[in-house]
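Incident log, entry 3
Record: HTH-type transcriptional regulator BsdA (289 residues)
Problem: checksum mismatch between cached and fresh output.
Input:
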Amino acid sequence: MDIRQLRYFIAIAEEGQITGAAKRLNMAQPPLSQQLKQMEDELGVVLVERSGKRMELTEAGLTLYRQALNIVHQMEEALSEVKETGEGIRGTLSIGVSALSAYRLPGQIRLFQQKYPLITYKVWKGDTQLLNQWLERRTIEVAIVRLPHSLNNCTMIPLEEEAFVLIVPADSPYADRSEIHMREIAQLPLIMPSLPGLGIYDLIVKEFSRLGVEPHVICECPDISLIVSMVAASVGSSIVPISAWETHQSEQIRGIRLAGTSIYSSAAVVWQSGRHLSKAAKRFIETFS
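Fresh output:
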C-alpha cells in the first residue's frame, strides 16, 4: 500500500461513495473501485460497507482512515519543511476563522503579506466545531476563534478583551438610548450570536441566569453578517462583541452600550499542540505576539 492509495481511501471515507470520491480525485470510478478492492485484499479485512447509496466505514476502515490522515499529512509536512529549508518562506497558509472573530484577519494578512510576499492564502470560515475538525484534519494550520472555545488539544494566544453591545433596528424605540441594562434586554426578541453549547452563547445565557432573568431567544445564528441583516430587517435585536458592531455598522441599526454586566470576550489565535507547523504558520502566529 502506498501514499497514492491512502489518498484514494481518504477521499472514499470523506465522500462516502465511489462516485463523489472519483470526482474529487479527477479519475474514473472503476479504477478507484479496483484500488479499494486491492487494499481490502492486501489487508485481509473489509474496509467499507454499503448502506443504500452511501458507504460506511467499518471499524477497520475507520482505523485505516485515521492512520492514513496522519501518514499523508506527515508526508506533506515533511515535503513542505524540506522546500522551506531550500527556498525560504513560501507556499500556502491555510487559516480558519469564526464569524465573530473575522474583523482582525484582513489587517493581519495585509501586515504579513508585506513581510512575506511569496505566501498565498486559503481562508476557511466556520463555527468552533468546524474549526476543530479542520485543525484535527490539518485542513487549516491556524484558527482565530472567539473565547471561550471548546477546541481539543490546542495552544492559544488570547487577544485583547472587549465589551459587548446591543444592536437594534434604527426604528426601535430603544434606538436613541446610549445605554441599556442587561435585565431589560431579556424582554426583547433576541437573535443569539452563536449556537447552544458554543462558548459565546453559553457566556451570554449564564450572564442572564446570574441576573435572574431568562432571555427571549427567537433565533440562533453564528454568522454576524446575517445577524446584522436580520436586525436591520427588524427581526430582532442581538448582543455582539463591540468589534463585530464596529465592522458592520449601517444606517439601519444602532449600537447601545450594556449596563449592569461585566461580561467581556476576546478572540484568540489557536493551533494544534505538538504538531509540526510550516514556517509560514509560525511567522503568522508571531505577528499576534
